[in-house]
């Protein structure tokens, strides 16, 4: 019997560490966004939801894979985020792909609006999590990666994985 038999693996420890940094419970992580975009800055935002959406999110029935953020007037909205209908809500259910308003301070909204308009950056949701019983969205101010950047990132990740594997075999 080994000494590590009862301990969680590295990936589980990394996930728990990320969870502690973000909040109480990580609901959804948009891994595709980190592959497609170079994230320059991260901002935590509240989100305006209906009751059936909150219950569905707490059941982890949400997807941020195709989601993005966009300004409408002077307000920021989360678009194309799929929150599945809550089966017990019946008549008071919500449409799964409706636009949801993000809650930020005015100075943060103004700064993000300037960055998007002048610098050609985009806003993407990176994660959704619970923090003090409130649902929060982690937004990334990002620049799109070129194909060669994606390939370089994949190659670098593979080399790191091989080095870690070699170090484990050596011990």
TrEMBL record:
Main location: cytoplasm
Similarity comment: Belongs to the SmpB family.
Classification via Pfam families: SmpB
Coiled coil location: none
Record's keyword terms, sorted: Cytoplasm, RNA-binding
BP terms from Gene Ontology: trans-translation; trans-translation-dependent protein tagging
Function: Required for rescue of stalled ribosomes mediated by trans-translation. Binds to transfer-messenger RNA (tmRNA), required for stable association of tmRNA with ribosomes. tmRNA and SmpB together mimic tRNA shape, replacing the anticodon stem-loop with SmpB. tmRNA is encoded by the ssrA gene; the 2 termini fold to resemble tRNA(Ala) and it encodes a 'tag peptide', a short internal open reading frame. During trans-translation Ala-aminoacylated tmRNA acts like a tRNA, entering the A-site of stalled ribosomes, displacing the stalled mRNA.
Compartment(s) of residence: Cytoplasm
Protein name, entry field: SsrA-binding protein
Keyword Mitochondrion: no
A cellular component annotation (GO) from this entry: cytosol
Top-rank lineage group of the source organism: Bacteria
PANTHER family listed in its UniProt record: SSRA-BINDING PROTEIN, TMRNA-BINDING COMPONENT OF TRANS-TRANSLATION TAGGING COMPLEX
GO molecular function: RNA binding
